[in-house]
Amino acid sequence: MPALFRMPEKGTIDPRLTAFLERDAAFDGALWAGVRTTGIYCRPTCTAKKPRPENVVLFDSLDAARRAGFRACLRCHPDEAAEPVPAWARELLASIEREPLRRRTSADLQRLGVEPRRARRWFQARFGVTFAAFARTRRLALAQRVLAQVPRGRSSARVAAVATASGFESESGFRAAFAKLYGAPPKRAAAGAALYVARIATPLGTLVAAATDAAVCFVEFADRRGLAGQVRALRAHFELPIVPGSNARLAELKRELGEYFAGTRRAFDVPVAAPGTPFQRRVWDALRAIPYGETRSYAEIARAAGSPHAIRAAGRANGMNRLAILLPCHRVIGADGALVGYAGGTRRKQWLLEHEQRDARAR
Questions:
Q1: What is the pTM of this model?
Q2: Cα separation, 363 vs 359, whole angstroms
Q3: Catalytically annotated residue among 46, 76, 217, 329
Q4: 76 included as an active-site residue
Q5: What domains appear along the chain, each with residue ranges and CATH number?
């Protein structure tokens, strides 16, 4: 019999309100709170004294807070916090997409009105690399695709031409940078062989997603502990370089996630790759089989995986899932209905379950 998630009783505090009152940074950029007594709205991490719960109005968008007549807090500056990518960075990213092979210097940034140190710090905080490294990686990724289409016997001359077109001052510098990123010299690179990594905004915070040209292989909340280690393990398993940017699979994922959060999608169609042990894969297959709007206990997952006594092992395999939401580990709960064991946090788990159950009842 399916385990029953205990829906909050009438009058139970909204988990988003709890997140605001406890200054939960995971909800920054996904939640805004208006205060009736002052007429201002804040982000969750505002350091001002928190108001009484009955005086708080919650909003899922910045525009909604403004339309309701609230004005921005001068302490936490929610307008700035709500803009995950500032205008100057959006223009910089757009310019890279328009001319991905162009080499950009500090002088180029200054002509755009961007202080190079500011760009370096922002890209380091958001992507884990400096702006120069980000742009260089994009140039190398495109160069790799061009080289992969060159017929054998003509690659040497083509490497020199691509190196120049990619903004490298010398062929040797291009070869060294290419080998460092791809682990192989230009001639040996396979077509399209890279893990593209992008950030996707959702009502529950930012997701980090990675995909090859064939399948999505990683989806996790950006504030999850140990995220960097998981991405490194992913790179080691696939033996592919990490390239900031998007591809067709990530675009498909973004669209389907938008539909899921809007309540118009129950299952995901984007191809996924979930490498693991045979037992882990059986557990993940059991997760995928949990119907939308329902839950299962860890014991039920262990039985579905063919190992009824391996309840703890099933729990560990559940925690090793690298495809949050797509492989719905949030639908696994304690035997008593308690929300336990979700790396994204119990508030997100509760939100996801309530979202699915409301939609399931409405249909």
A1: 0.64
A2: 6
A3: 329
A4: no
A5: 15-81 (3.40.10.10), 87-188 (1.10.10.60), 195-261 (3.30.160), 278-362 (1.10.10.10)
